[in-house]
């Protein structure tokens, strides 16, 4: 059984790292209604699926729940070893709906697609200077992505890969600690091989193991909210970057700088308001339905 | 009335520059069957539509003619001032079908999407050294794109725009002349404002003018083959880069280095063979249909 939501955040993240290419069809189907129908993340959705060094990107600046493209994803062979996805609620609303403002973001480094999706608000991060990469849109998230890549690119191998994981992770911890100062920085960052996951405040993980055609398969799912209630999702330790490779966690390291709780509390309050309004709407619809039945019974 | 094809090339290009945002729905509908049904460009298709500084990319490594996504494009608001599209025939076939090998290609420079689509074969261009940009896939086309951007980026404004058109055009002529040495280099290159079109051997242009809500609208269509036969398409002068801005040609400049005619002749021969096979298949289908009718008449 799926869990529509427990609590609520500004955006929601869902990603996968797997030993063998696979799709996220079931999890994406559970994510879809949370983008605008069950939850108010109605300002955009995006999915990045890796095909060798390149990320196939599907995204739209509209609610996932009513998107025909999202609904058709199963037709487009969305199998890969790494998949990132995101449903967005623009905050502030002035940083509006547009393709450029929709996650995941993508840049090529050394002939590899690097992709990024973020949950949180990083007020003022645009004061950090950028050099090689610049945002196409107006979000703090894309600015943070450019900031990370500007710094990381000098510590990657010539082909955009991770030659020295300790070195790369140390650099990422340094820049993520800087991000943490501006707000909440839960994110996914990947080059199609390694998946870096920063749990700043709130991210969950599920491991699955099975065999596919006699080959051992390991899959790790990462999500803002647990996607199912019958499986053993664990909450990642806040202020930690975890590194996944082919379905296994291969490293983790702490970042510094706790997110302020104000934004989180405000979200919880708004979530409660949304729940109340949804419940009222449902009660209203039931009342109208009941009145219609009464009418038919009388006529 | 549409023209299915006159002659045939390895890939086909279609682009638009317009004063006011508009879509390419009719032209794309005419292009769709040429990607695998009427013509053998069945290895991929792509459309880049600009939304401010960002290009929305839709592409798939499969035949446009049978693509559900291509067929659904009208649902996704594909309006813009600049649109690039491409249908691909892999040549050589070893540089196979993949998302990374499908045009248009895209890179961010100065916070703008630069996009590129190419028709032709540039054998050996991968020996040209690259610095800032590297291919995600294995095509000569993407290598050429990276080569152009590596050179162009130093002559752009800080926001990825064209500050000095003469300067930018001179740089582009220099690198395009280098490309010409490797083969056939018909291409579109854009940053969402300016559209640079290199007619190396064979490209056509159509201008349309009208009023939209009292505003003057100018649209320029560029295509490998004329898309309609009742309009006045003109053939661009070979070895020329033309620059379009908001539906008007604002500059042009000659490149050097004629493409060899061997590849062109081979394509024409293959096109003739494809036409013959299509005609035979159609005759065969008609014969079967006629025999079926005879059967029904007898029974």
Automatic annotation (TrEMBL), chains A, B:
DNA repair as UniProt keyword: no
Pfam families: GATase_4
InterPro entries cross-referenced by the UniProt entry: EgtC-like, GATase_2_dom, Ntn_hydrolases_N
Database matches in PROSITE patterns: GATASE_TYPE_2
Domain Glutamine amidotransferase type-2: 11-299
Domain of life: Bacteria
Keywords carried by this UniProt record: Glutamine amidotransferase
Protein name: Glutamine amidotransferase type-2 domain-containing protein
Phylogenetic lineage: Bacteria, Pseudomonadati, Pseudomonadota, Alphaproteobacteria, Hyphomicrobiales
